[in-house]
Specification:
Number of strands: 0
Number of domains: 1
Order of helices and strands: HHHHHHH
Strand content: under 5%
Structural class: mainly alpha
Oligomer: single chain
Amino acid sequence: MKRHLIKLLSTFFYLGEMPLAPGTWGSLGGTLLYLALGLETTIGHVCVFAAVTIVGFLVAGRAEAIFGTKDPKPVVIDEVAGIFLVFFGLNLTWPVVVLGFVLYRLFDILKPPPARRLEKLPGSAGIMLDDLLCGCYAQVALRLFGMLTGF
């Protein structure tokens, strides 16, 4: 795969190269993509999530060689895939979107077990899997919050 294409996709169209908080920018880009798609079917969400995740696994490990470091900060395709898991199957009101985004960023920063361990895996697995798990954590937390508060 060409270097330019790997960089384009792994940084989610260069959002990861924003000067501050690239993971937050990637998460925001993923949220906006999710909302812009406006998919009405579960199969549509699954297909887009699968495509983003597959692309992430294909390019994230290769991007390490381009950026010269393990899990480079500009690589945010993992945040895009992770944020898709946060919103899957939920009724997306603005409070749900904002809370889901904040919860995802919190879990992604804190990396509760075993996410921190997954991050240490080599290549694309180490880049992608911790963010996917943090997306699941945020989804569960969001659902629990909704059940407890009627939110």
